[in-house]
TrEMBL record:
InterPro entries reported for this sequence: DnaJ_C, DnaJ_domain, DnaJ_domain_CS, DNJA1/2-like, HSP40/DnaJ_pept-bd, HSP_DnaJ_Cys-rich_dom, HSP_DnaJ_Cys-rich_dom_sf, J_dom_sf
SUPFAM superfamilies xref list: Chaperone J-domain, DnaJ/Hsp40 cysteine-rich domain, HSP40/DnaJ peptide-binding domain
SMART domains, sorted: DnaJ
Keyword Transcription: no
Matching CDD domains: DnaJ (cd06257), DnaJ_C (cd10747), DnaJ_zf (cd10719)
Tagged with keyword Cell wall biogenesis/degradation: no
Domain J: 6-66
Keywords, ordered alphabetically: Chaperone, Metal-binding, Repeat, Zinc, Zinc-finger
Annotated spans, Disordered: 403-438
GO terms, biological process: protein folding
Protein name as it appears in the record: DnaJ-domain-containing protein
Amino acid sequence: MASEELDLYELLGVPRSASAPEIKKAYHKAALSSHPDKVPEEERADADVKFKAISQAYEILSDPQNREIYDTQGMAGFERGGGGGGGPGGVDLDDILAQMFGGGMGGMGGMPGMGGMGGDFGGGGRGAPKKGRPEVQEYEVSLEELYKGKTTKFASTKNVICATCKGEGGREGKKGKKCGSCEGKGVKTALRPVGPGLVTQETLPCTTCAGRGSYFADKDKCRKCKGARVVSQRKILELYVPRGAREGEKIVLPGEADQVPGQSEPGDLVFTVVEKPHETFVRAGADLSAEIEISLAEALAGFSRTVLTHLDGRGIRVSVTQPKGKVLRPHDVLLVKGEGMPVKRSDERGDLYLILKINFPEDGWLKDDAAVQRVQDVLPRETEAEVKADVIDDVSFEILDNMDNFGAGSGDPRGGAEWEDEDDEDMHGGGEPQCAQQ
């Protein structure tokens, strides 16, 4: 089993940038779903284990000081001098984990709902080396690249253990001096006021030794890393985005994150796929949609032509015939089977939905009365009953292309003008109504 430190953020299902309210909300949700009383009796033992782990993660991440320690040093930040476990508020994490998992987190990989997170949280022994945390970053990819797949090479610079001092920080034969500030523990406990007459105890990394418990004098530091224990290394990496990958998917480069002294192996470099918006296509799962424009003549009589260029550069030709006078209308949809996005790890593809937009002719396209008559002769003329009225007026009109002025200046408050009424003014604006003199 790989030695890997359990990621508390992953356990609660939140990103490392999550706010305190988001962590609290995620804890309540996870605790409710994992509570032993909410599952069948045969699953209660496993649920109890997961429930305790979730509660322990929330105890650490809900406290700002403990969260800072965890973010900067991981669970090693809570270790006391000599490798003993020291949790938040003086709680011995190793004792808690031993009680929860029978002597360590070695069985964590078998917990239901926690696949991929199994590892030696306590390592099965105190001070055991662990795998480093993953480094996650976003990677923007175009829809064309997601359609065809993409392989790219890039230069990565990361920290690796100094080969000269093997991560110790000192010259060969030199031993670090015990830090007198923290007495070799690497952390210091202090009281911090939180209100009138109230204090809280917090454990923070020792600033003198940077949480190591010891330090080297300048003359004894490793000449290669200058006591930092790590050096920078530049490496060319290859990143492959598979065909059909989706927004939010993660591409993992194992072991390519920074190395940290005291850990058996570095963490992974993780890229989260971010899909760039496309000017033509809209994606929904494995399906694509696009709007195409056709003329009024094509809507009435059909057409056969290339309507768009697909994501792989192919032209998509559509042939539409109109049997028995059927016409195409605005927002009708042409469904093209199998021309959507590829489906990962298969030969299948989604579908393509073409949404029709009909362009009407420009003004003046009918040049004379004869042309108008020819159109009238071809198009169907529906006979509609004329509205009957006692008085009929012939009115003049103008053709508009919008309703922007509808209600404006009409005396209606909804049109922006104030409503004025003579009766209202007499009753409310002019005081008491005046009686006429007899």
